[in-house]
Specification:
Helix content is 41%, strand content 31%. The protein is built from three helices and 13 strands. Strands 1, 2, 3, 4, 5, 6, 7 and 8 form an eight-stranded mixed sheet that branches. A hairpin with a 4-residue loop joins strand 6 and strand 7 (107-108). It binds zinc ion. Zinc ion (ZN) binds at residues 174, 176-177, 179, 198, 200-201, 203.
Length: 251
């Protein structure tokens, strides 16, 4: 009885090994397409120089690559790959397949990769069509931003210290010149912060929305700084006058 059981177990084990070996042998080649030079767009449109690659079991000896039904080429050394130029073939839909040959004389197939060959003109038109709207949006946004910033700076130059501001879209205080200003509705916002140049000194910063209290305090501080600046100027003028006076005295 025991001998029989062992025999059955061995038989099961051996058949499992055979089955898994058969699975391993029955595997497909992995096929991939990569761009060397050219363009690849939506709908698997390709144009230019591409390489079709295949990989499989360790005992893979050579691979034949097919474009539709015709042999594209054969590679007898790993990594198995064939380079081709789409312009050498008619435009339209094409299928890639490969057959691998192992050292023990087995043949392995592959899945099919489909691609649409397009002409250079079609590829550049497609690329242009993709790029133009993106560029239009980017440049449009940049133009709007530049114009609003310029308006901000022009407006602010006329804005004396202590002048009333519009804080309806919130406001911030410049870390450079400490002057408060009202935010424009348009602009670059991120995580509740605003990236904008200071309309007073023109320095770009990321501004946190300041509270009304902080803004008014800053407005008052702004008045004080301006007064201080006026005094500084008048002190300088006094000194200059004294110097001039001393010159005359020396004469
Ligand atoms: Zn500033």
């Amino acid at each position: 009885m025991k001998k029989n059981l062992v025999a059955i177990l061995i038989a099961i084990f051996v058949s499992l090994v055979i089955i898994s070996a058969a699975f391993a042998q029955g595997e497909e080649l992995t096929l991939s397409l990569s761009k060397d030079f050219g363009s690849s767009g939506f709908n698997s449109d390709i144009q230019g120089t591409f390489t079709v690659k295949a990989s499989g079991p360790a005992n893979l000896e050579r691979v034949q690559f097919f474009l539709d039904e015709t042999l594209l080429g054969e590679d007898t050394e790993a990594p198995f790959a064939i380079q081709f130029v789409t312009d050498n073939y008619p435009t339209g839909a094409h299928d890639f397949t490969a057959i691998g040959f192992t050292t023990d004389g087995k043949q392995i197939g592959s899945k099919t990769i489909s691609a649409v060959f397009v002409s250079k003109e079609q590829a550049s038109v497609a690329g242009f069509k993709m790029v133009v709207p993106i560029l239009a949006v980017v440049f449009g946004f940049m133009a709007i931003n530049t114009v609003t910033n310029m308006i901000n700076i022009l407006k602010a130059k006329k804005l004396p210290a202590g002048a009333p501001r519009n804080y309806t879209s919130g406001g911030g205080i410049c870390p450079n010149c400490r002057r408060p200003f009202g935010f424009q509705l348009l602009g670059i916002h991120m995580f509740g912060r605003k990236l904008t140049p200071c309309p007073h000194c023109g320095k770009w910063s990321i501004f946190k929305r300041a509270s009304m209290n902080e803004l008014y305090t800053a407005e008052l501080a702004e008045l004080d700084t301006e007064k201080a600046q006026i005094y500084e100027v008048s002190d300088e003028e006094k000194l200059r006058k004294e110097l001039d006076d001393s010159k005359y005295q020396n004469l």
